[in-house]
Design goal:
The protein is an alpha/beta fold and 308 residues long. Helix content is 36%, strand content 17%. It has 9 helices and 12 strands. Helix 3 links the parallel strand 4 and strand 5. Helix 4 runs parallel beside helix 5 and helix 7 runs parallel beside helix 8. The N and C termini lie far apart (45 Å). The relative contact order is 0.18. The structure holds iron/sulfur cluster. Iron/sulfur cluster binds next to helix 1, helix 4 and helix 7.
Length: 308
């Protein structure tokens, strides 16, 4: 069996930074350290950090007063930030700087008296955070079809921003529909979709052209991982999103000569290696990593941990 590995795959700089923040906070302040929401969307990462002393909660009210609290890589609304201040929680913010950039961009447009069209998926924590960061009217849409029913106060004063982990192609279609209906709208094109999402999508598209089946290692609630599976499937082959090697169904390999593997931005490389090991149980594996690009992005630690 030929097994081709996409490059890049797995952890992005925002996820690496968020995990490091939790680890360094535990080292510096000692356990327990409270983390609002899953620090990143991956059960294996969450369980490993839990074993070291992280406590994951969704409601700040559950955190004892004065306890060190970390906001996840997805970002939070201003209301959550205010609640943390009211409850005297010393906060370390692990929001990915590329998510913060979108927050700032949205507020800058709102300050120009523009209504904001936010392209993203309802219910995703990043979207809840972004919507709750912008002081002004925000309309959430996820498809080009929804543009027709948007009800805005002044079509000449509009801006759009997008979630960081969307499909580049789908988002371009939404932006085209927005520009067609509102020619005066301003926005960043697809540049809000982060470098890691764009690179992994380009790599999985290339991978899907060479494979009979694509396996995407990632969590079911990981937006960027779901997009990778969809992009592979759009190339006309079977594509599955799996949490880990145990989730592999042997029947997916029937008649398959070439398996493509990639991983979402919050999936650790060890899960990819475990999947390769599992594939070896079905026969000899000939491993072939694609050349792809090497990412050198690193984000600075928050000031609270700069010395840790
Ligand atoms: S996927 Fe992109 S926006 Fe999200 S944490 Fe990684 S680098 Fe940041």
């Amino acid at each position: 069996m030929r097994v081709i590995l996409a490059q890049p795959r797995g952890f992005c700089a925002g996820v690496e930074r968020a995990i490091e923040i939790v680890e360094k906070a535990i080292e510096k302040y000692g356990p327990p350290i409270y983390v609002r929401h899953e620090i990143v969307h991956n059960r294996h990462v969450v369980e490993r950090l839990r074993a070291k002393g992280a406590v994951f909660i969704d409601d700040l009210a559950a955190i004892p007063k004065g306890s060190v609290t970390i906001f996840s890589a997805h970002g939070v609304s201003s209301a959550v930030e205010d609640e943390a201040a009211t409850r005297d929680l010393p906060v370390i913010d692990a929001t990915c700087p590329l998510v913060s950039k979108v927050h700032n961009e949205g507020q800058r447009y709102a300050n120009q008296d523009r209504e904001i069209i936010l392209v993203g998926h309802e219910g995703h924590p990043e979207i809840e955070g972004t919507m709750g960061r912008i002081n002004g009217k925000v309309h959430l849409i996820s498809t080009a079809a929804e543009v027709a029913s948007l009800d805005v106060a002044n079509p000449a004063r509009l801006a759009y921003i997008t979630q960081t982990t969307l499909s580049v192609d789908d988002t371009r279609a939404v932006i085209e529909a927005l520009r067609a209906r509102f020619p005066g709208i301003v926005g960043p094109d697809t540049k809000d979709i982060c470098y890691a999402t764009q690179n992994r999508q380009r790599a999985v598209r290339e991978l899907a052209l060479m494979a009979d089946v694509v396996l995407v290692v990632g969590a079911a609630n990981s937006s960027n991982s779901n997009r990778l599976r969809e992009i592979a499937a759009e190339q006309g082959i079977a594509a599955y999103l799996i949490a880990d090697a145990d989730a592999l169904e042997p029947k997916w390999l029937d008649g398959v000569r070439t398996v493509g593997i990639t991983a979402g931005a919050s999936a650790p490389e060890e899960l990819v290696q475990q999947l390769i090991e599992r594939l070896r149980q079905f026969g000899t594996v000939e491993l072939e990593p694609l050349p792809g690009i090497t990412e050198n992005v690193r984000f600075r630690m928050p000031t609270e941990l700069a010395d840790a």
